[in-house]
Hints:
By secondary structure, the chain is α+β, with helices and mostly antiparallel strands. Helix content is about 55%, strand content about 20%.
Amino acid sequence: MKIKRFSISMITLLVALIGFTTIISPMFLKDRIAGAKAEEVKVKETYLMAKGLVESEEEIEIGSQVVGIISEVTVNEGDTVKKGQPLVILDNSKIITRIKLSEAKLKEAKAHQREVEVGYRNEDIKMAQSRMNRAKIIYEKAQNECERQKRLYRKEAATLVDFERAEEKMKVAAAELDETNANLEKFLKGVRKEEIERAESVVEKTTSELNYYRAVLKDYTILSPIDGLVTDRYRDAGETVTAGTPLMNLINPHKMRIRAELEESDVGKVAEGQPVEVSVDAYQDRVYQ
C-alpha cells in the first residue's frame, strides 16, 4: 500500500510540473525573443554599417622613361622594398657606347681649345713658312713649264693637249701657293678671338651632350622612390618596353586608409571623432579600432 501511495504521489507531482512548465515556458520564451529584438534594435541604432576597400594613401605606378629591353626584374609581388633599391634594369649597352664616344670627342675638343688659347708655337710658324716656300717653288716650275708649252704650241711643236695640261698644273700650283700663304699669314697674326670662342663652343656642346647621355643612363636602372610593398608586377626580363610603359605598382603599407560609402540616409549620423570598428576579409576573427 505504501508503494502504491508513493507512486501515485510522484505521478501527481510530475503532472503538476508539466502543467506549470506548459504555462510558464511560452511566457519565458516570449520575453527572451522580445529582449533579443530590443537588443537588435539597440545595435542597429548604435552602429552604422558600410562596406569599403582598404587602400594605401601613397600608391605609385612604376614606369619606364626610355625605350629598351628589360635585362632583370629584381622584385616580385609581395616583396618589401627600400627607397633607392633597384627594381628593374634595362639593357644599357647602346647608351654606354654613346657615352664613350662623347667622352672621346670632349677630350679632343679640350685639347684643341688648349692649343688655341696658348697660341701658335714657333714650330707651327716655321712649318707654315716651309710649306709656303715649297708651294712657291712648285708654282714657279709649273709656270715655266706652261710658258714653254705655250711657245711650243705657237710654233706647232707641241699639241694643244700638252699646253692645256701644263696650264692646268700651273693653276693647281697657284691655288696651293695661295692657301699656304694665307695659312702663314694666320700664324703670323696669331689666334683670332673668333677661333677661341669657336673652340670654347665646341667644348660646351660636347660637354652638354655627354651630360645628357649620363643622365639618360640613370633611367636604365629604375629605383624605388619609397619604402613600400610591391602589389603588382606587369613585366618580365626579355620584354621590350617604351617610354611610359607600366612595370609595377608600389604602395606604402604604413599609410593605409579605408574608403567606404554610407547610405545617404545615414550621412547625418556621422561626425568627426566617432570611433570606428573595422573587420577585413583576410582576418575575419579580428576587429580593428
